[in-house]
Amino acid sequence: MNTVIVTGAGSGIGLAIATKLASMDFNVVVNDYDGDAAKAAAEKIGGFAVQGDVSNEADVARLVETCLSEYGAPSHLVNNAGHVHQARFVDLEPADFDRMIAVHLRGTFLCSRAVLPHMIARKSGCVVNMASQLGQIGGVELVHYSAAKAGIIGMTKALAREVSIQGVRVNAVAPGPINTPLVRALSEEWRTAKAAELPLGHFGEPEDVAETVAFLCSDSARLYVGQTLSPNSGDVML
Q: What is the DSSP letter of 81?
């Protein structure tokens, strides 16, 4: 049976992904910074909860060790943990920038680094990194977020080139605006203006992103390497 670690799975997109993969008979390790949210999600889907901060190396080591003890080596990893903060660039503090990079980019690095030896040893595995369409086009008052997500896209391509020959597929998903607690934390003005820009005229739902992740985690995506798929309501067209 496949085993997946999903970070940031206590709510929103992460919860939808964990739920979808559990329905596909994956063993699911649910990680979240909020331990109570992780526990509730795990109880809902029949998975195992691990509280932890993905930017903390010790927490990540504990997350993978727990997976190994409960289910064995992870066959899949979904780097979904996120953080949002809105401010004009001139008002950004270094701490704001550092925290954004830590959660998104450092977290993706630490989690991937922790699971890859197990995947390489078995010559198979799948990593899906959560990027954003703002990593492709940028976003007003979200410079630090856009930079972190652009870094994830770059990391995905480079890592895919490095480990695909060893049997590990690495891809990314770059959603557009999705109705999640993180997006609802942004200003109503921003959300209204953003919806008006979208060809579909509305935001997506977490389940829309979960379907894309599930595809990349399946054998149907065996030729997808270093790709960025974009359920984004038409915000970016490539």
A: -
Which amino acid would we find at residue 43?
E
Mean pLDDT for the stretch of residues 195-208: 90
Residue (of 2, 82, 10, 21) closest to 50 by Cα position = 10
pLDDT digits (tens, 9 = 90+) for 165-179: 999 999 999 999 898
- 8-state DSSP, 213: H
Beta-bridge mates of residue 50: 31
CA angle 180, 55, 99 (to 5 degrees): 70
The verdict on whether 224 is a catalytic residue reads: no
Residue found under tokens 């020959």? 165
140's tokens: 């007003």
Query: For residues 94 and 137, is the Cβ–Cβ distance under 8 A?
Result: no
The answer to pTM > 0.70 is yes
User: In whole angstroms, what is the distance from residue 27 CA to residue 40 CA?
Assistant: 16
Q: Hey, what are 74's tokens? A: 């992870």
- What the block records as the tokens of 39 is 């526990």
Which positions ≥6 away from 22 have C-beta within 8 Å? 28, 45, 46, 47
Q: Where does 3-177+206-229 sit in CATH, by number? A: 3.40.50.720
Token pair in block for residue 236: 């970016």
Instruction: Render pLDDT for 94-110 as a digit per residue (tens, 0 to 9).
Output: 999 999 999 999 999 99
* Residue keyed to tokens 């038409």: 234
**Residue in 33, 71, 145, 224 annotated catalytic:** 145
Residue with tokens 């060790």: 65
> Quick one: the chain helix, strand, coil %, rounded to 5?
55, 15, 35
Beta bridge partners of 21: none
